[in-house]
């Protein structure tokens, strides 16, 4: 380029006067970065420092120069003061030192594995480095960066928009399940991995993107796993698509091997950036603990008493346990403060279902000493394993790790997916310990012996794909056009039984035909971001004249429980719930509560207050409302009718109960005998009890249930009474008597068949 | 499980694992997979992919977990009622019947007596706390042994690609530590230690140095009222010491040796036994033996694991509120505050308050009312 050297000089040397002139020209010409490539040889537009850079041939120096220029190369506007401030901190990040190295590798390979610990700046910086290299405005293809969590996608996008000095939603945007904040100008897009997967269903070649960055790949979410396999396949067809897999931990080798496209290829190249971490001293207990919560509480107190300043992070397994521990710690700390001169300590719980404003509190400063010169205060965060990788809290110096977390487990034989407390993995224990070394050297107290660490913990946490019901995933894969599921290139293939179960469920739901092909129903069901059962129920609800109601129930079932039952006010909460109770089932109770909520909203009441009075969760109700709106939109697109049976009609509730069966006929239980409280699930023959949270007081012989809960006993939760005749009518294939094993259920069905036949014969005879 | 154990009745169905389903070769799922070339016993996933070496067993069958319905910490085993208590009085007799030498029996007896004495003293007059004041090495008192150097070895900025190696450095440093501890123990003058111990009733503290003194002290007879606890601990730490250096196999061998000693008292075994005994509380020993006997049929290593895990007494019987001890920041084992004494002190405090409220004279005094 002829004038490149001139521009160069200008951007670095030129003074204010010329700058202002340039801006003026800019304004006149309506500089548009999207059209820049049309004018590549036209000197008039060369004032953007990007013009002299060539895609896939840039250097860190060029990019830095572009970043340093007074004009924002992406918008053509002047950089704000703040921009340069942020730029300076960005240049201090560990990744920055290796920018050139990164670019060199990026240019030389199609798939790159990038390892950088949390704190290296990879999530915010790498996509920008790619942006300055891909120069998406020249060819119109976007850069995507996936995140496992919605919150991360949103907050990182905001951060990067600030760093680039652009508006969020314009050049930098994000897209998550129920929210899309991108525009026509968007060049860099953060999104959840699930969202990219959904996009892939409609764009199997991912043709909108020139580079896809999979961040936090070490978390191995279901969607990331599928995306990796998918991208690996696409990469072989589309040589122009670049892929970066970013991981924070160890098993980089596994990623490298996996991403050698053909067997004879060498492993994908790896670039590692050291994080900014300090040493963490690790302590084990000399002997196993009797009660890990008790031990954890004591450890926290002990740290508070004797260790120097620094915040504490304690890992526990679930909401109840965390709240309990918080209570105990704060009681004891109060005592300590009263009886000796211990410093103040603020204690914050942290778990997924906590309202956001309370989650924010963990970033508050530790309390000041009680008196001047007194012992320093500290904060103690009691968290689930969300604090393990996803969230960085500065100031943590002590980590207390009892070695447990709640993990999802799926058993394809009993078809139960449940969250169970189980030992963590070694990798995750190291990750937890690492949290102590973010700001200065820290300590990690493990409440187990070193022997237990070595012998009882598995090496790596099992990826989600091995722990989940796959029916939704299989449906997505089918929709993506993957025919050969057996040889689909999973990084960790799921157990064959799990896949069999998924296929079988989809077949019964009529999402797959008997040859394993996607049916129309299945294709439609895959449009919904729901489990296939729920989706099928929703799609077939118009046949039962109650799609409005089923839509509401579906939304309510896809958010966390709307019932609040505070420990100190259980009785009152139960009374309030009883107001909404429907004798026939919990699904209907949910619906009643939702209708009451909408009623209160329409009456112009203060809904928040109303919810509080009625012990309902405003947050979850309103998010159900939001989900409902989204699902409604999808239904409209798919031309699914929205209808209701008139409320006065005696079949109003009957229709709803029947419609439930259309999606949940595989989740039915029959009472064992007339005076027993034990139910037996159909086909899988698991003995279950009805969860005590139910509002149903009668005992019915047949119930449909929403979930199977495994605690000390096996429970079914959210149940509704059904009539067995409906089963034969709605799901004749599943309830084909011949497919049942001998037992109470089979004989009940045989009797039922007999009855139905007789009734029909009578009708016919008449 | 003993008869007195908590009963946990649970009804199981005829086929809780639903093998009926998994054996059914006619199911739709199985048909589909077979039609695409899958054979039972094979992994799913790409054919001869290079990453198959990384597949775990969870890719063959679903993950099985044990339902956890208690608060037991990692590695702790439930007391199934097969460990009896109150056999102290018979230890001597039983020991003789088991063919232990008089000498050994004597030491065991002394240990028991010490424990009793300490417990008594603890109950009667309480304990005094001491603050660690460093180690006298030659003529100089050192705050800490040069453990920091060892620890910092894993402290270098972590290079992720080396992460796995790092694990080993971590354990290495632990190893170093424990070795040092051992060495330390040997070095310290025993008498001096003993004397110190006697007046000290040292309680467990957070610091390494503390742990060291403890383990050192453990070698001597336990005088501490904390005895029980610390002994256990010592035993444990002893085991810990041995572990990194010797393979688990060898340690299991050690155990077996012990067992032999019980029967035939071979020279070698006796020696090992003695060493152990010094370190271990008698109760524990008893337990171990029982366990061992039980485990003979099982593999040696397994029994070892059990034994170390089952060490009974908890932190709770550990004594005083360590929290009030000011310890140097370089820490070792963090010993949680013992609740018992905390509660003890607190309940005493509450009782005093109550008494004061009940007593009008005292109340008047408190509120400065002249009667």
Automatic annotation (TrEMBL), chain A:
Q: Name one Pfam family in it.
A: DEAD
Supply one GO BP term: spliceosomal complex disassembly
- SUPFAM superfamilies registered for this protein in UniProt: P-loop containing nucleoside triphosphate hydrolases
The Helicase ATP-binding domain sits at 103-268
- PANTHER family under this entry? ATP-DEPENDENT RNA HELICASE, ATP-DEPENDENT RNA HELICASE DHX15 HOMOLOG
Stated name of the protein: RNA helicase
Q: Which UniProt keywords apply?
A: ATP-binding, Helicase, Hydrolase, mRNA processing, mRNA splicing, Nucleotide-binding
* Catalytically driven reaction(s): ATP + H2O = ADP + phosphate + H(+)
**Residue ranges of region Disordered?**
1-52
Report biased composition (Basic and acidic residues) as residue ranges.
18-31
Which SMART domains does the UniProt entry name for this protein?
DEXDc, HA2, HELICc
Q: Which family does it belong to?
A: Belongs to the DEAD box helicase family. DEAH subfamily. DDX15/PRP43 sub-subfamily.
Q: Name one GO molecular function term.
A: RNA helicase activity
What EC number(s) does the entry state? Answer: 3.6.4.13
Looking at the record, the residues that make up the Helicase C-terminal domain are: 299-481
List membrane-spanning regions. none
Q: Which organism is it from?
A: Podospora fimiseda
PROSITE patterns in the cross-refs: DEAH_ATP_HELICASE (PS00690), HELICASE_ATP_BIND_1 (PS51192), HELICASE_CTER (PS51194)
A single GO cellular-component term from the record reads: post-mRNA release spliceosomal complex
Function, as annotated: Pre-mRNA processing factor involved in disassembly of spliceosomes after the release of mature mRNA.
Automatic annotation (TrEMBL), chain B:
User: What keywords is this UniProt entry annotated with?
Assistant: Nucleus, Ribosome biogenesis, rRNA processing
Query: Where is the region Disordered?
Result: 1-32, 149-338
Q: Return one GO MF term.
A: nucleic acid binding
Q: Would the keyword Nucleus be found if you checked this record's keyword annotation?
A: yes
Say where the protein is mainly found: nucleus
Q: Point to the regions of Polar residues compositional bias.
A: 15-28, 321-338
Q: Where is the signal peptide?
A: none
Q: Name one GO biological process term.
A: rRNA processing
Pfam families referenced in this protein's UniProt entry, alphabetically = G-patch
Basic residues compositional bias, start-end = 220-232, 271-293
- Biased composition (Basic and acidic residues) is annotated at 156-176, 183-196, 233-242, 307-320
What does the UniProt entry say about where the protein is found? Nucleus, Nucleolus
Spell out the Low complexity composition-biased ranges. 297-306
Q: Which residues form the G-patch domain?
A: 25-79
Q: Which PROSITE patterns match?
A: G_PATCH (PS50174)
- Quote the InterPro entries the UniProt record gives: G_patch_dom, PINX1
A GO cellular component annotated for this chain's UniProt record is: nucleolus
According to its UniProt record, which protein family does this protein belong to?
A: Belongs to the PINX1 family.
What's this protein's function? Answer: Involved in rRNA-processing at A0, A1 and A2 sites and negatively regulates telomerase.
Q: State what protein this is by name.
A: PinX1-related protein 1
């Amino acid at each position: 380029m002829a004038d490149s050297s001139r521009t160069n000089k200008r951007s670095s040397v030129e003074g204010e006067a010329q700058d202002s002139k340039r801006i003026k020209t800019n304004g006149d010409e309506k500089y548009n970065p999207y059209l820049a490539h049309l004018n590549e040889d036209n000197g008039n537009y060369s004032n953007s420092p990007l013009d002299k850079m060539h895609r896939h041939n840039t250097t860190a120096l060029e990019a830095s120069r572009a970043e340093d220029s007074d004009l924002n190369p992406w918008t053509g506007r002047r950089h704000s003061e703040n921009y340069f401030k942020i730029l300076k901190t960005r240049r201090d990040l560990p990744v920055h030192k290796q920018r050139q190295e990164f670019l060199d590798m990026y240019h030389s390979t199609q798939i790159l594995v990038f390892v950088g610990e949390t704190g290296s700046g990879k999530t915010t910086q790498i996509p920008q480095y790619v942006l300055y290299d891909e120069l998406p405005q020249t060819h119109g293809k976007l850069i995507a960066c996936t995140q496992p969590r919605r919150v991360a996608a949103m907050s990182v996008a905001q951060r990067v928009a600030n760093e680039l000095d652009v508006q969020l939603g314009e050049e930098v945007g994000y897209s998550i399940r129920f929210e899309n904040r991108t525009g026509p100008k968007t060049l860099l897009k953060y999104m959840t991995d699930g969202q990219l997967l959904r996009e892939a269903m409609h764009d199997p070649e991912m043709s909108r993107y020139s580079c896809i960055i999979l961040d936090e790949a070490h978390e191995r979410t279901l969607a990331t796993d599928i995306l990796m396999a998918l991208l690996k396949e696409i990469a072989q067809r589309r040589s122009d698509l670049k892929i970066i897999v970013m991981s924070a931990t160890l098993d980089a080798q596994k990623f490298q091997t996996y991403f050698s496209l053909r067997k004879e290829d060498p492993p994908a190249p790896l670039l590692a950036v050291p994080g900014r971490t300090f040493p963490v001293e690790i302590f084990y207990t000399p002997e196993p603990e009797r009660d890990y919560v008790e031990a954890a509480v004591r450890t926290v107190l002990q740290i508070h008493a004797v260790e120097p300043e620094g915040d504490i992070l304690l890992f526990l397994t679930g909401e109840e346990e965390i709240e309990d521990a918080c209570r105990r710690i704060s009681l004891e700390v109060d005592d300590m403060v009263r009886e000796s001169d211990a410093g103040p300590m603020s204690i914050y719980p942290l778990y997924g279902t906590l309202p956001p404003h309370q989650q924010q509190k963990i970033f508050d400063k530790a309390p000041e000493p009680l008196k001047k010169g007194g012992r320093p205060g500290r904060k103690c965060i009691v968290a689930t394993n969300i604090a393990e990788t996803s969230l960085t809290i500065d100031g943590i110096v002590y980590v207390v790790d009892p070695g447990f977390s709640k993990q999802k487990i799926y058993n394809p034989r009993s078809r139960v997916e449940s969250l169970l407390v189980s030992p963590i993995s070694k990798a995750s224990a190291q990750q937890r310990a690492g949290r102590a070394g973010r700001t200065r050297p820290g300590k990690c107290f493990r409440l187990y012996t070193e022997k237990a660490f070595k012998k009882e913990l598995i090496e790596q946490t099992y990826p989600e794909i091995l722990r989940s019901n796959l029916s939704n995933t299989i449906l997505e894969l089918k929709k993506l056009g993957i025919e050969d599921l057996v040889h689909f290139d999973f990084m960790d293939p799921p157990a064959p039984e799990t896949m069999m179960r998924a296929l079988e469920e989809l077949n019964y739901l009529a999402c797959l035909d008997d040859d394993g092909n996607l049916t129309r129903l299945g294709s439609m069901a895959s449009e919904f971001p729901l489990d296939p059962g729920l989706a099928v129920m929703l799609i077939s609800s118009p046949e039962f004249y109650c799609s409005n109601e089923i839509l509401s129930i579906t939304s309510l079932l896809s958010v966390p429980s709307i019932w609040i039952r505070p420990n100190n006010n259980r009785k009152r909460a139960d009374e309030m719930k009883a107001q909404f109770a429907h004798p026939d089932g919990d699904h209907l109770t949910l619906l009643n509560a939702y209708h009451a909520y909408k009623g209160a909203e329409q009456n112009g009441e203060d809904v928040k207050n109303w919810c509080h009075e009625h012990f309902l969760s405003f947050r979850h109700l309103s998010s159900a409302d939001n989900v409902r709106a989204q699902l409604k939109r999808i239904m409209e697109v798919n031309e699914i009718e929205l209808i209701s049976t008139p409320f006065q009609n005696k079949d109003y509730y009957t229709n709803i109960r029947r419609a439930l069966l259309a999606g949940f006929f595989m989740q039915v239980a029959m009472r064992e005998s007339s005076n027993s409280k034990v139910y037996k699930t159909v086909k899988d023959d698991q003995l279950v009890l009805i969860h005590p949270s139910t509002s149903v007081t009668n005992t019915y012989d047949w119930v449909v249930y929403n979930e199977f809960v495994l605690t000390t006993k096996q429970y079914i939760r959210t149940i509704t009474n059904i009539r067995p005749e409906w089963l034969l009518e709605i799901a004749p294939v599943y309830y084909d008597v011949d497919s049942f094993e001998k037992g109470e259920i089979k004989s009940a069905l045989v009797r039922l068949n007999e009855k139905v036949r007789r009734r029909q014969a009578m009708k016919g005879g008449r | 499980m003993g008869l007195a154990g908590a009963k946990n009745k649970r009804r199981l169905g005829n086929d809780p694992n639903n093998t009926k389903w998994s054996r059914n070769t006619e199911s739709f799922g199985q048909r589909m997979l077979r039609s695409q070339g899958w054979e039972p016993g094979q992994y799913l996933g790409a054919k001869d992919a290079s990453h198959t070496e990384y597949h775990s067993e969870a890719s063959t069958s679903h993950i099985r977990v044990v339902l956890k319905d208690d608060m037991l910490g990692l590695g702790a085993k439930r007391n199934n009622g097969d460990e009896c208590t109150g056999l102290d009085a018979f230890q001597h007799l039983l020991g003789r019947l088991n063919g232990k030498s008089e000498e050994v029996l004597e030491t065991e007896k002394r240990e028991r007596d010490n424990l009793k004495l300490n417990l008594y003293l603890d109950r009667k007059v309480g304990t005094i706390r001491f603050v660690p004041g460093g180690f006298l090495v030659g003529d100089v008192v050192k705050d800490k042994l040069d453990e920091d150097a060892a620890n910092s070895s894993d402290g270098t900025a972590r290079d992720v690609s080396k992460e796995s190696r790092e694990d080993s450095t971590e354990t290495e440093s632990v190893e170093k530590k424990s070795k040092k501890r051992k060495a330390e123990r040997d070095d310290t003058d025993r008498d001096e230690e003993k004397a110190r111990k006697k007046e000290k009733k040292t309680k467990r503290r957070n610091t390494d140095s503390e742990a060291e003194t403890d383990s050192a002290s453990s070698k001597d007879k336990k005088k501490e009222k904390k005895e029980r606890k610390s002994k256990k601990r010592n035993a444990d730490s002893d085991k810990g010491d041995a572990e990194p250096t010797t393979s688990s196999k060898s340690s299991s061998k050690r155990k077996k040796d012990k067992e032999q000693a019980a029967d035939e008292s071979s020279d070698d075994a006796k020696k090992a036994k003695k060493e152990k005994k010094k370190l271990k509380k008698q109760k524990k020993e008893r337990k171990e033996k029982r366990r061992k006997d039980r485990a003979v049929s099982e593999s040696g290593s397994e029994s070892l694991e059990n034994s170390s895990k089952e060490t009974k007494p908890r932190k709770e019987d550990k004594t005083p509120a360590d929290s009030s001890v000011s310890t140097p920041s370089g820490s070792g084992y963090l010993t949680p505050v013992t609740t018992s004494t905390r509660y003890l002190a607190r309940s005493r405090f509450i009782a005093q308050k109550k008494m004061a409220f009940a007593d009008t004279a005292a109340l008047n005094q408190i509120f400065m009312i002249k009667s």
